[in-house]
Amino acid sequence: MAAMPPDPLPTEAPTAPSSAMAVGESVIEEAASPAWTYTVSVRELCEFTAKRGDLDRRFTPSATALEGLMGQNAVTQRRGQDYETEIALDTTCGPLRVRGRADGYDPRRRCLEEIKTIRGHPDEIPQNRRLLHWAQLQTYGALFCRVRSLSEVALALVYFDIASQSEVELRQVFGAEELENVLSERCAAFLAWARQEARHREARDAALRDLAFPQHSFRAGQRDLAEAVYKSAANGRCLLAQAPTGIGKTVGTLFPLLRAMPVHGIDKLAYLTCKGTGRLAALEALDDLRSGTTGQALRVLTLVPKDEGCEHPDKACHGDACPLARGFYDRLPAARQEAVAQGWLDAQAQRQVALRHGVCPYYLGQELVRWADVLVGDVNHLFDIKGLLWGLSQALDWKLAVLVDEAHNLVERARRMYSAELRISQVRAAAQTAPGAVRGALDALAQEAEELVVDTDAPYEVLDELPDRFVQALQTAAGALSEHFNQRPLSVGSLLDFHFELQRYLTLVEALSDHSLFDVQTFLGARAVIASDAEPGPAAGDAALCVRNVAPACFLRRRFAAVNSVTLFSATLAPPAYAVHLLGLPGNTAWIDVPPAFPAEHLNVRVAEGISTRFADRERTLHRLVAVIARQFDEHPGNYLAFFSSFDYLEKAAALLATLRPDIPQWRQERRMNSGARAAFLARFQPHGEGIGFAVLGGVFAEGVDLPGSLLIGAFIATLGLPPVSETQRLTQSRLDQLFGAGHGYADLVPAMQRVVQAAGRVLRTPEDRGWLWLLDDRYRRPDVVELLPSWWRLPGTTLGRDGSSAAFGSWSPVVPAGS
Ligand code: SF4
């Protein structure tokens, strides 16, 4: 593993900083020198230089990656014994090194072949895509003639229809000189860009080597965090970093990774968040850091969701419907050039550049991903089944370093990425709009789904295994829809949307294993209606068949292993074994628990006596609970947050306080608050103000809310944060016990305590803050609960919290970051 530089994290800029001019000049010289080279794949070269015309995101028949391999095998097996496959080609064209693998060469026909597995007929492939296929084949042809010293070669584009197993061959003979000219033109068209990119990389790396910490000095604990992040990137391993509020985690993780980029050849850094709120802080820190680089030589791109980047939400993404898709690839080069020159590409900057060039902002952003240095986005970009960053990093072989903010949410986010639900009403509705053959398959699927519902004994039931008949009906329906859309390329509409949903559902059903539950949930007496053969209608109720992931580890393991390094950081990650086991982190993952930046005495922790917030005890203890809140307010007037397990409980407590103490100002979180209402809730916390904001634990005000100083002086937590009792919860617990061993609290206590500690983290935001934390439930004295509380909390009358470090919360021996 790569060695650490002697001092990777200086707090000040070097004494003799390079001027922008000096660095720029040396880079230009080097990039223009004869020794300079740039490696590009045939595919990238052609996509860059030969993609023209409209953007078209309508459905077109395409084969899956697996079908692509099967198609290629099928074609090559039909050729003679002397047929060559997977021919590695590598040549230089000036400073460009062009590499690729041609699919096959038939020596008897002296024919180089490019095999494209498709669904349907090649006439249905859009013209600009067919031209791109020819461009790739001609480039392979030029490389092949060079390597084999041929004067001419036949080139054949072979379209293989996976459904009918038939081939259509488009064949043409080319002279070597003609192909050489094509290659030279392509390389010349790419060369200026390649030179620019090489200069940029050198300038970027030179600037990052000199990057100084943007603040005067590291805060307490921040340097430990930064060093751990740097070492993990240097050693190419994952890191779990628990670090308290107020130490500057965002800059404390970004700075060391930026410093590691040039030293360890890291191509890109991805800063991913579990909730959108963290992105703003990341962009602010990056703006600061980038301002400190020579020549601002760092390209930062925000990955904008489609609904935010789209200018015409009422239109479809193709040239006939949307003006920003028409001629997209013709105008892309100029837009791309302006964007990379600009370097700072948040959502607004992408939009401005895109609209100046008449292209779609969202798809411009997607194109820019490969040319940016730092990507700021959501965790789904890497961890989702079809995550953009995952796909590109694999295809383009990036060395990618990743930071995941608010990482305590990743287990829950990943579970949702690998869960899916199918409602019988959805299938029935799709069948009504589907044509004949598809309708039959969808009706059969609805019938099999209904059989499943009738066979269940309760409104909610988890099935140990799925009946073959249901899976077959699902496969048949998905196949019929595929076939239908293969015959009708460029379709749009609700049936196509259902087709995609069904494909995803089928993928997860076929991947079902002990990591997921399959449950059947019936609503409004649906079973009775189905069993009685009554005409189904809106009043008949519905049923949902759900693949519910409980342990996403098996889906994520490969991703953690494939990228250079992933740092998961949060104020609440203990016990580390929970994240390691549930997410599938590698065994050599490092763990760091950074102590708080303030003395423990700054947080006055109290456990209320004689209060139980168990459902059955709430009425009985409500007066006592409200009395504790009122007394604390009287003794130390100021702004407080009071967290409850549900809106119902919150309302009862707030109403009682309002009755008993109308003099205490209060405001309440409500269900489904929009951004304006949320802002109004937070605006009630004024400097040196007095009042109590009532909120739910795990809700929008329980994390990511920053109320330093007198804006917030204390919090009450009137719940243990355990999930509500339900059959799903019981079965989730039993499955996790089965996978990881019983009694670790992975299904309830661990995530509950993470929520509690997150909410408590609202109180102290800066090293100067002081405040009160009231734990309003006598279960906070239970040893297994105390065990999971932060080790620096001083709980009167109990032993100290231990961050879940005992073996009770999972056996996994964390690696210290200093290990190599
Ligand atoms: S503007 Fe909207 S509709 Fe048009 S191409 Fe972009 S995403 Fe599609």
Q: What can you see in these coordinates?
A:
This protein is α/β, with parallel strands linked by helices. It contains 28 helices and 24 strands. An eight-stranded parallel sheet has the order 10-9-11-8-12-17-7-18, sandwiched between helices. The structure holds iron/sulfur cluster (SF4). The site of iron/sulfur cluster has 13 residues, from helix 12. Iron/sulfur cluster binds next to helix 12.
Q: What fraction of the residues are assigned to beta strands by DSSP?
A: 15-25%
What is the gyration radius calculated from CA atoms? Answer: 30 Å
| Individual helix count | 28
Overall SS class:
alpha/beta
How many beta-strand segments? 24
Major β-sheet profile: 8 strands, parallel
Tell me the overall shape.
globular
* Uncertain residue ranges: 1-8, 10-32
- Mean pLDDT metric: 88
What is the CA–CA distance across the termini? 7 Å
Please bin the fraction of helical residues.
Answer: 40-55%
Q: Strand order across the biggest sheet?
A: 10-9-11-8-12-17-7-18
Bound molecules: iron/sulfur cluster
